[in-house]
Write a structure and sequence with these properties.
Elements lengths: L1 E2 L2 E3 L10 H7 L16 H21 L6 E4 L2 H16 L6 E5 L4 H14 L2 E5 L9 H7 L4 E5 L13 H10 L3 E5 L18 E5 L10 E5 L27 H13 L3 H21 L6 E3 L11 E6 L4 H8 L3 E2 L15 H5 L4 H4 L2 E5 L6 H26 L1
Parallel strand pairs: 2-12, 4-5, 4-6, 6-7, 7-8
Antiparallel strand pairs: 1-2, 3-9, 8-9, 10-11, 11-13
Amino acid sequence: MKIGKTIYLDHQATTPLDRRVLAEMAPYYSDSFGNPHSSDHAFGWESARAIEKAAAKVARLIGAAPDEITFTSGATESNNLALLGLGRRAAGGERRRILVSAIEHKCVMAVARVLQEQYGYTIAQIPVNRQGFVEATALEDMLDEDVLAVSIMAVNNEIGTIQDIKRISECVRRQGSVFHCDAAQGPLAISMTALASHTDILSLAGHKMYGPKGVGIIFIARGLEGRIEPLIYGGGQQNGLRSGTVPVPLCVGLGAAAELLTGKEAEKQRGALRHRRDAFVNRLKGLRWPISVNGPEGDAWHPGNANICFAGFSAHDILAAFQPNMAASTGSACTSGIPEPSHVLRAIGLSNDEAESSIRFSLGFGTSDDDVEEAYTLIERSLERLLKADLAHTA
């Protein structure tokens, strides 16, 4: 998609709010403004019904029951509630180890450190191969009866690897461990209607799926709620798991976005996205400079993701040369400003130089064929300009 004169290829950082979603949200900012926890009048009842409907729509997206859905501020809070909530309540028990994949989101890695430093858990990273897939043999060897939880994301946010969640789940559950899955990148990449059946706890974020920022959900399988220590205390809303007044418009928006991504139309959009991404990558392979794709290729690859290494160039220089004509990124927006190579790219075996030469392009449902062609031309011209500038500097 193009906004003004800028091609937007950073959909894995955030997606635009779908106009249909905004239309459903709008009344709850004005006319239907009641507090959903006000149980003594019609305004409250109306808002409460809207929350229930939104929860049901999100539940359908992942194959859960509505009462297993808790609204949060986003995937970072959901991931914190999942692991910190579970770890705090289980502190002092026999299960003292927590396993996370080596390419988890920074918020999962940060929570793991807190559990290690403040609660005495042993944290171990599950290795991945060059394509970013969890090493199944390594996971099986690491699992034992002392493992409290395993956290593995469904779809990687930097290289787009789609994990075999069903197989991983079977492995984890054989040992009685809790399986947490950060699925924030899932809705645009895969059909998620069976995902809840393979996970114990799951996280989503509205702004990664054409919904609003500031809202997400945590799915907690029925019967597991009592093992989660809340992060926020107060009036006991949402079964005591997350106190505070639920933001009705945001929840309605998340439900609307979930509904749009459930069903055959969403599958068609994912297929079209994959076709366009493949065309983009094939064009880049025709550049006169060597490029390589970081991560997987094939079906187990986010259909909008293209993480490309431009050997011999600085990713930051290339991105600067794009401005203001194209938006892409070096990786997760949540690690912006951190002066170190991507831990994801390092985990799949890239050198520091290779990681620092890599750019994540993430296409969305609104990306057109013209956008792809224009992006290719801009990349080609930017590399030529950078090479000429470098030659002039060294002459």
